[in-house]
Design a protein that fits this description.
Chain lengths: ~260, ~70
């Protein structure tokens, strides 16, 4: 069975997108991304460290010809900062596919939705394909889809919190109303969280800390790969209805 | 003459181009410039123009590259 994920016209076999932050080394990062079976990795854009320009470079380990780079706007708190950052990312990499996130405050890293919507419109007008990190508010999710975003990426819970999917009802509402891929971005802590996101009907999961902060990031990356596949297959298979009382699995006829 | 590169004041020779500045400052990233981008006074300087863009006194240059991030 072919069950691929298409984002902005490009098809991927993996439904798990991983970050490249917080790893012990870029080598471990690359090993984890491979163990996760990821085809897309998020990356950040920062000033070249001029006092130590010879330090290791991400691009030498997590190579752009092996993984699709998804530049993010982490650390941006206004629409203008996010647009400026992604224009630089496009110049650096030459790609139009980007992850937009405009944050509200450092304590929660919760998305600032008015600024996010404004930035999305500006970026789409400028030719970008925008995958957008957003709150789990179905109303704003619809506005972002109508603005032309190519993937809607609601948080499961706060970035880096590992609390899992705090509002599965809202995630499900967003899945039901959205015609572009829905990818849970942020909050996944362990494999069951990723499976839950997929069982809710999401098209994919994006995570960073759940893998990078595990005691064994490579094994956790593998666990997440299997969780996403398991959750996806369970969703497609269609779960049994829940019942209040027991229903025997063995036949009642022929009892001795 | 003085310019600002990534927030730090630097002295460069008059006539220095963007391409020369990258080679002088950016080490390995300067040798392989595929993954970097330049902004000069808030305007992106495309790679095709690095060699012909001459830096002027007081320019504010940003030199950025991809790093790990979530």
């Amino acid at each position: 069975m072919t069950d691929s994920l298409t984002i902005a016209g490009k098809t991927y076999n993996s439904r798990l997108i991983v970050g490249t932050g917080k790893y012990k080394s870029y080598q471990q990062n690359a090993d984890a991304a491979r163990a996760a079976g990821a085809e897309i990795v998020t990356v950040a854009l920062r000033r070249v460290n001029l006092s130590d320009p010879e330090q290791e470079r991400l691009t030498d380990f997590v190579k752009p010809d092996e993984f699709t780079y998804l530049p993010n706007t982490a650390g941006c708190y206004t629409a203008d900062e996010a647009v400026r950052t992604l224009r630089l990312a496009r110049e650096a990499g030459g790609w139009n596919l980007v992850k937009l996130e405009v944050l509200a405050d450092q304590k929660t890293l919760y998305p600032n939705m008015p600024e996010t919507l404004e930035a999305a419109k500006a970026l789409i007008a400028d030719g970008f394909e925008v995958m957008v990190y957003c709150s789990d508010d179905p109303v704003y999710a619809k506005m972002l889809e109508d603005a032309g975003c190519c993937a809607i990426m609601p948080l499961g819970s706060l970035i880096g919190s590992g609390l899992g999917i705090m509002n599965p009802v809202n995630i499900r509402l967003i899945v039901e109303q959205t015609r572009v891929p829905v990818i849970v971005d942020a909050g996944v802590g362990t494999a069951s969280d990723a499976a839950m996101a997929m069982e809710l009907g999401c098209d994919g999961v994006l995570m960073n800390t759940a893998i990078a902060a595990a005691k064994d990031p490579i094994m956790m990356a593998s666990a997440m790969k299997h969780a996403v596949i398991a959750g996806r297959e369970a969703y497609l298979a269609g779960r049994m209805p829940k019942k209040m009382y027991a229903d025997p699995s063995s036949p009642l006829a022929g009892l001795i | 003459m003085l310019v600002t590169v990534n927030g730090e004041t630097r002295s460069v020779q008059p006539g220095t181009t963007i391409a020369m500045l990258i080679t002088q400052l950016a080490g390995e990233s300067g040798k392989d410039q595929r993954g970097i981008a330049i902004e000069r006074n808030l305007e992106i300087v495309p790679k095709s123009e690095h060699a012909c863009t001459v830096i002027e006194e007081g320019d504010r240059i940003e030199l950025v590259q991809f790093v790990g991030g979530g």
